[in-house]
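In this section we walk through a basic example: taking a raw amino acid sequence and producing a predicted 3D structure, encoded as discrete structure tokens. The instruction is simple. Fold the sequence below.
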Amino acid sequence: MATAKPHPKPLDIVIKTTRRDLHTYQQLQRDIERHSKLHGNVYVIVNPPDAACYAEVVSPQFTLVPTEEILKLYGHHGGMADDWHTQQIIKILAAAMVAHGQYIILDANTLINFDFDENHFCRAGYYLYAAGDNSDDEWEVRARKFLRLNPEGHLFGFRSVNQIFYKANVMAMIRYLEKLYGADIVTVLSTPAEVWTEFKIYGYFCRSVLKTSGHFFQRSDDVISMNKANGDVEGFAKWLRHARPLMVKLYQSRPSYRLTDSEYDAALELIKRAYV
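The resulting token sequence is shown next.
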């Protein structure tokens, strides 16, 4: 996967996935193997009950990691339920596992549409942290409350999917939260005073607590979401021919619908054709 010349800031990939997303994960894996020129490692994190089915499909170039192995790095030897909230916890705690100083977190339903390397995400020598998307403002207010920041402060509009974390910043945030709440980080994140999302609390910690976080904050349109219930795929694919974002999140399952694997693949094929 990596090119011969090393990169000064190798970027790892972290994917937290479940059995329900096995089909979409396999397409993401094919896209990474085809298009990624990153110089870091790829980690696929699953809960123990899903490890067997993922072991059959995960590339030997990737590292399959049970969630319990990550929890052990923080002195937590019990299990953890696999739900929307705990997936966010694991994405944060993965900082102790990754080999390099920064990692991009990808959802399993992400399609990658052309070749990319670390430079795609860099601005003026820093990794981009996408902001300027105010579609999830309520989560930002909750993130500020969880960090005990001014709830009436500025809304940055941090993107809610597929962001890059700096390992050092995450570890600093962990120390901050442990001191703030007087408990170990697994306990703090598992029983939050406010419901939060991982990309919101990390973004606010970097901008409002660290202040010198090393990120470049800017709007980015390199990730677009496609919810089949809210529009026709053919029209979306026509629009993609002009917009051409690196990543498209194609939802197989939403509260209002569930696509079969064949239906998902048909929609995927229309999107992929837009890049030919």
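Looking at the output, two observations stand out. The mean pLDDT is 92. The first helix runs from residue 22 to 35. In the next section we compare this with other chains.
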